[in-house]
Each structure stands twice: as structure tokens, then as C-alpha cells.
Amino acid sequence: MKTNLHKTAHSRTMIVAGVMSGTSADGINVALVRMGVKGYPREGNFGFELLGHSEQGYPKQVREAILAAMNATQVSVANLARLNFLLGELYADAVLRAQKKFGVKVDLIGCHGQTIYHQGEAAKYLGYRVAPTWQTGEGAVIAARTAAPVVADFRPADMAAGGKGAPLVPFLDYALFRHPKIFRIAQNIGGIANLSAIPAGAAAEQVIAFDSGPGNMVIDAVTEKLLGLGYDKDGKIAATGKAHDGVVQKLLRGKFFRARPPKTAGREEFGREFVQAFLASCGRIPKQDIVATATALTAHSIATAIGRFVLPPVSPQRKILPPREMILAGGGAKNRTLVAMLARELDRVNVRLRFSDEFGLPSTAKEAVAFAVLAYETWHRRPSNLPSATGAKRPAVLGKISYP
Ligand SMILES: Nc1ncnc2c1ncn2[C@@H]1O[C@H](COP(=O)(O)OP(=O)(O)O)[C@@H](O)[C@H]1O
Ligand SMILES: [Mg+2]
Question: What are the CA-CA distances from residue 376 to residues 189, 244, 257, 319, 369 (Å)?
């Protein structure tokens, strides 16, 4: 009898929607995941099945409002409140559409929300030291519209436990990509580029994870400013330009790149002000060279971070190294020029470049899947931050739950 009960509890699966909207503010990614499946995927041991994923751009005026809120030194409180509820509606709509498209009904939703402010490091405010973060997109609205419980607002619990509130995806990376014999780096290139380094046979506490610097954020900003294009599709513009190495090397001497991990970045580091300084450093060079230089900055900053903070020093006696792989995901994986630059850099340090897609996890769905997994953990009251990644003093159950 007891055995039967045990069996039922384990065979119960749950369909979870992960909803991701990153610092690029390009739109909403939804992944529908069946959780609690045994034996999938093969590489890791998480036990889930990706049922489908979809992507929905933000309406232009919404994207502009989000970017304005992120970059603002002053913004109307009423508009921030409105944006919170409006995004709740848009996230709910994205989930409802995904449900319809893939013919399923979700049991739970994990929604990251849109970060409008993140300060991983405590600083003085009104005489006190605080480290705040703010993701907007009202969970109660999503729950009401979709009739499913929603876990949202994942980052504050980690920060309350002394962490930087980011990165959170390493929890999934470790579960999926750890390997007994291969040193693996799971690299995501969203607005910001972040990585989880998982040494061969590593325990969860040995995972190193941090933001390496800009992902697409600087590239997007310069294509927008110079050419009126939201991004450099497939890296075609950068492919026609020449990267100016001097500019890249100069920028890599900046404070963020030199700082030791754990470290996190956002528009606070690589937003408008950084882009102005970047353009000033480029001076009067052709526009396509500027785009190529921004692309090279991302590729080099990733490779430099890996060399400085991730790869173990090679001893001359040890000629045979464990194989090393980078598993790439995020919208930046679609930028061919960026991928080619990165592959070249990685080749020098004997790291083979692979794509998340090869592991059954489409590049553009990975982060959304991560938030489905995190929500599932929270639903079961299990912690899902990796203290080694965020710097938290303890594991924490992440997020806040809204019930329909
Ligand atoms: N086909 C493509 N070619 C080049 N860049 C792309 C392509 N598709 C997406 N991107 C880049 O990826 C970004 C979105 O990546 P995403 O992983 O959604 O980031 P975020 O999590 O910050 O929203 C876009 O802003 C764009 O710069
Ligand atoms: Mg996005």
C-alpha cells in the first residue's frame, strides 16, 4: 500500500509554463514544460519534457516604455504601477496563446517579469545599506487571466539571503549539463551575457556563475542609434565591418570586466551611458565597424572572463586536459558574426563551441525553461538558488505565489 502511494506521488506530472522577458526588452518567451518526467533529458537528470515554446515581441510603445523606465533617473510612479499591471496582461496573453498553440492547459506558471532596476551590491541609501531589485509584471493578474497559480518575483529571496539575486539559471544548467568527464560552460547571450562553469564531476557548490558583460545590449543600442534597426539580424552588418581591437582592449580594462565574480550586470552597467562612452571611444569610424567592434566586445569579454576566472591554469606537466565545451544559448546564438568571433576566441583556449539546441533545448527557450523549473521547485517548497552562483549565505525558496 505504502509503495503504491509512493509510486503515485512520483508519477504525477505537471505542466508548467516558464515566461521570460530579459534585459533586451525585445519581448516574451514562453516555454511549456512537463515536469516530473523520469529519465529525461539524457544528459542531465531533471526529468522534464519541453512541449513547445513560443516568442512574442512587445508592442513598440510597450518596449519604449520599458526601456524608458529602465534608463530613467525620474519616472512617474503612476506609470510604473500601470506598467506592472499591463505587463501582467501581456504575460497572461502570451501564456494563453501558447496553450492554444500547443493544445495544453498549464498547471503552474513561473514568470520572471521585466527587470526595471537591479543593484546586486548593497549601497548606502538614507543612511542604510540596501541592495534592491525590481521585476515588474503582476502575478495576480496573470493568475486571474490564466486560472493557474503563478510564481513570480524570484530574485528578492536570494538577495534577502545575502545574494546578488542573479544569476538564477545556473540551477538548470547544473542539473542539465554537468558531466563526469567534460568541463562545461553554459553561456547565455541575452541583453547581458552570463555563464555557468561546471567543472567535470563538480558538485553544485563548485559551479561558478556570473555575468561576463554585455551580450546583445550594446550591439542593439548601436544598430538602433546608427541605423535605426532594433538589432543586427544574423550579424550581417558586423560581418561587413572591421572590429577595432584597440577600442575593445581599452574597454576590457574597465572596472566591471576586471572585478572578480560573483558579479552581475544590467542596463545600469551597459545601458545608455556605457553606449555613449563606447561611441566616443570608436570616434569617426564607419558605422559597420562600430557594430563589428560592439560585437567583438561581447565575444572578447566572454573569452577574457573565461580565461581570467573560469579555466584552471594549465600546468606544463599535464598535457592531457579534460575536454572543454561551451554550450551556447540566448538570442545572441543567432548572430553568426558573434558566434564566429567567439568560436575563434574559444579555439585558442581549447574550448569547443556547441549549442543548447543540440541538447534538445532550443537557444531561445532555455531561460524560459529555467523559470518553469524554478517555479516547479518553489511550488514544492524547495530552494533553487545556487549560493555559489549568487553569493547568498544559504539556499532560499524563490518567488511569490499568486493563486487564481
Ligand atoms: N537572428 C538574430 N540575429 C542576431 N541577433 C539576434 C537574432 N535573434 C535575436 N537576436 C538578439 O537577441 C536579443 C534577444 O535575446 P534574448 O535571449 O531574448 O535576450 P533577453 O533575455 O535579454 O531578452 C535581441 O535583442 C537580438 O539582439
Ligand atoms: Mg528576450
Answer: 24, 46, 34, 43, 11
Atom of ligand 1 nearest to the CA of 230: 25
How far, in Å, from the CA of 112 to the mean position of ligand 2? 11
Tell me which residue has its CA closest to atom 25 in ligand 1.
24
User: For residue 11, what pLDDT is reported?
Assistant: 52
3-class state of residue 400 by DSSP: strand
Q: Which tens digit of pLDDT belongs to each residue from 359-378?
A: 889 999 999 999 999 999 99
**Quick count: other Cβ atoms within 10 Å of Cβ 381?**
7
Torsion of CA 338, 289, 276, 137, to 10 degrees: -30
**Ligand 1 center to 272 CA (angstroms):** 18
Residue from 87, 211, 231 whose mutation best tests the ligand 1 pocket (most atoms within 8 A of CB): 231
The ligand 1 site (C-beta within 6 Å) comprises: 22-24, 26, 190-191, 216, 219-220, 231-235, 330-332, 334-335, 367
Cβ-proximal residues to 124 (8 Å cutoff; 6+ apart), any chain: none
Burial class (CB in 10 A: 0-12, 13-18, 19+), 399: buried
Report pLDDT digits (tens) over 176-208: 999 999 999 999 999 999 999 999 999 999 999
Residue 329 CA: which ligand 1 atom is closest?
A: 17
CA dist., res. 48 & res. 38, Å (int): 7
Q: Count the Cβ atoms, other than its own, within 10 Å of residue 253.
A: 8
At residue 41, does pLDDT exceed 50? Answer: no
Per-residue pLDDT tens over the stretch 314-355: 666 666 677 999 999 999 999 999 999 999 999 999 999 999
CA of 320 to the centre of ligand 1 (A): 37
Ligand 1 atom index nearest CA of 363: 17
Whole-number Å distance, alpha carbon 378 to ligand 1 midpoint, is: 28
For residue 273, pLDDT beyond 80: yes
Residue 43 has pLDDT above 50, yes or no: no
Q: Which ligand is nearest to the CA of 187?
A: 1
Closest listed residue to residue 90, CA positions, set 25, 27, 15: 27
